């Protein structure tokens, strides 16, 4: 748990939001290293203060959970992210868009379904939704730009249902929610839950908002959850996956697939996760998670995998909560209780890797090679010029690039009578600049350095 002074500062920020934005009730929580370290609630749900187990509607955070189901199908080999939608859900007018484009909102598909505003009306089955779609459902060329689409995730929910032969909410409960212990996350509300309200803009009075089963569109934003459950979800987004997905798959979901705001790049989207960059008072952060809004409710969950921190809020108001509430809570935590660096301890290194540690040269450019855990390697330029990458060991004795220019490229250690060199996708690294004993592309001038 956080210190008393930290808790007071966090609660004050939450209280300012509830009072200043005129929110009927709001809850918030902070997660560090997988554990809830602070929870706060303000306002009233009925006659009670909202607690960690009070349900609120979480809106489009539902989309991230649908994305996890899709990625589980991908990891099982049941579909490929480059598959056209028509391969798994034939009959739509946008069957040529890929699963990845739907996950990243780059399909060009319309934002909303045909008919009345779906968020305030009862839904229709998936077959009726698909039948109502026409050529006008495509607003942009697939892959051209970011264009948020609720319809896209409704279609992904139907893909999951057809691949699993059960409704997507059943698959979600069995494959994700129960393994993570998120037993308070449900498609419809259960007591105790908040009622969704609109707050009058010029008077302190409330108007109840409708709540319906949205049928095919439910996959875009129907779920209800609690602060306790969303805290576990924040840890999941940060990499504590509980066996539901490989951490590498969740990291892939957090990679930017598109930028929402052009040159600013403060908001983007991965595969089912919204992304945000925040220049905090204590440190800069890259956040992953999702916002959520439905009539009567707002919610957001963010995780920063770099230091194992997550944050969330839920409120029962149609509009009003400021976007900086959660980043302010993160800043307060970082200022009052910055995380301690992990203790350094020595670790054994295999002799063949120890031999590789130290300086290498690509032409005249000096690089440092460091040995990482699990037989990993890192190549980093010693000066200001060059391309840094980390590499993961493979079963065949090679290494695969994890990031930077060499992401996905193969690094091989080549030993011969002339010594040892590194072959990185045709780039040759040697122990001396332009070592004549190594197969430097184009050869080395026989007269040498002069």
Model description:
β15 (376-381) and β16 (389-393) form a beta hairpin. The protein has helices at residues 4-20, 61-75, 85-88, 99-103, 126-132, 150-164, 168-180, 227-237, 247-254, 325-336, 351-354, and strands at 25-32, 35-43, 56-57, 197-199, 206-208, 224-225, 258-259, 267-269, 274-279, 284-294, 297-304, 309-315, 358-362, 365-372, 376-381, 389-393, 399-401, 410-416, 419-424, 427-429. The protein has 450 residues and is of the alpha+beta class. α2 (61-75) crosses α7 (168-180). It starts with a helix and ends in a 21-residue tail after the last strand. The model has no long low-confidence stretch (mean pLDDT 95). It is built from 11 helices and 20 strands. It is globular. The strands form 4 sheets. An 8-stranded antiparallel β-sheet has the order 2-1-12-11-10-9-8-7, with helices on both faces. Strands 13-14-15-16-17-18-19-20 form an 8-stranded antiparallel β-sheet, with no helix packed on it. A two-stranded antiparallel ribbon has the order 3-6. The protein has 2 domains: 4-336, 3-Layer(aba) Sandwich (Beta-lactamase), CATH 3.40.710; 351-429. Helices cover 25% and strands 24% of the residues. GO terms for molecular function: hydrolase activity. Keywords: Hydrolase.
Q: How many domain modules?
A: 2
Q: What is the second-level CATH architecture of the largest domain? A: 3-Layer(aba) Sandwich
Q: Identify the CATH class of the largest domain.
A: Alpha Beta
Decide which structural class fits the backbone.
alpha+beta
* CATH-defined topology of the largest domain: Beta-lactamase
Spatial strand arrangement across the major sheet = 2-1-12-11-10-9-8-7
N-to-C terminal Cα separation, in Å? Answer: 65 Å
Output mean pLDDT: 95
The CATH superfamily of the largest domain is identified as DD-peptidase/beta-lactamase superfamily
In percent terms, what proportion of residues is strand?
A: 15-25%
Q: Main sheet, how many strands, which sense, barrel?
A: 8 strands, antiparallel
CA radius of gyration is: 25 Å
Helical percent range?
Answer: 10-25%
Q: Provide a count of the helices.
A: 11
| Unreliable stretches covering 5 or more consecutive residues | none
């Amino acid at each position: 748990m956080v210190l008393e002074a930290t808790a007071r500062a966090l609660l004050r920020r939450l209280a300012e939001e509830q009072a200043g934005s005129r929110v009927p009730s709001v809850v918030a929580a902070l997660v560090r290293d997988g554990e809830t370290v602070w929870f706060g609630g303000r306002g009233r749900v009925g006659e009670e203060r909202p607690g960690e187990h009070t349900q609120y509607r979480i809106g489009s955070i539902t989309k991230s959970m649908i994305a996890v189901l899709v990625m589980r199908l991908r990891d099982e080999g049941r579909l490929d992210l480059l598959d056209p939608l028509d391969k798994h859900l034939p009959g739509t007018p946008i069957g040529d868009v890929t699963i990845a484009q739907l996950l990243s909102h780059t399909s060009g598909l319309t934002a909303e379904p045909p008919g009345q505003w779906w968020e305030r009306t009862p839904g229709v089955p998936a077959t009726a939704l698909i039948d109502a779609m026409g050529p006008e459902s495509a607003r942009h060329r697939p892959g051209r730009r970011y264009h948020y689409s609720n319809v896209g995730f409704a279609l992904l929910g139907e893909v999951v249902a057809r691949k699993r032969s059960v409704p997507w909410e059943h698959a979600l409960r069995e494959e994700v929610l129960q393994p993570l212990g998120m037993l308070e996350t449900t498609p419809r509300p259960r007591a105790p839950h908040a009622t969704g309200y609109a707050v009058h803009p010029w008077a302190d009075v409330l108007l109840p908002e409708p709540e319906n089963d949205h049928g095919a569109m439910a996959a875009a934003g129907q779920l209800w959850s609690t602060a306790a459950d969303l805290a576990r979800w924040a840890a999941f987004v940060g990499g504590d996956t509980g066996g539901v997905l490989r951490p590498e798959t969740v990291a892939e979901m957090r990679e930017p697939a598109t930028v929402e705001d052009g040159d600013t790049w403060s908001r983007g989207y991965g595969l089912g996760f919204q992304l945000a960059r925040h220049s905090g008072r204590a440190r800069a952060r890259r956040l992953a998670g999702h916002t959520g809004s439905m009539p009567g409710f707002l919610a957001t969950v963010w995780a920063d995998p770099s230091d194992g921190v997550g944050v969330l809020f839920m409120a029962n108001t149609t509009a009003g909560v400021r976007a900086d509430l959660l980043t302010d809570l993160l800043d307060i935590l970082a200022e009052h209780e910055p995380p301690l660096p992990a203790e350094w301890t020595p670790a054994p290194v295999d002799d063949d890797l120890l031999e590789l540690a130290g300086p290498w040269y690509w032409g005249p450019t000096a690089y440092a090679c460091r040995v990482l855990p699990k037989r990993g390697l890192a190549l980093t330029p010693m000066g200001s010029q060059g391309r840094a990458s980390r590499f993961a060991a493979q079963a065949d004795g090679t290494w695969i690039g994890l990031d930077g220019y060499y992401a996905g490229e193969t690094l091989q250690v080549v030993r011969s009578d002339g010594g040892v060199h590194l072959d990185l996708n045709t780039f040759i690294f040697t122990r001396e600049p332009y070592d004549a004993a190594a197969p430097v592309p184009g050869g080395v001038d026989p007269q040498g350095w002069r």
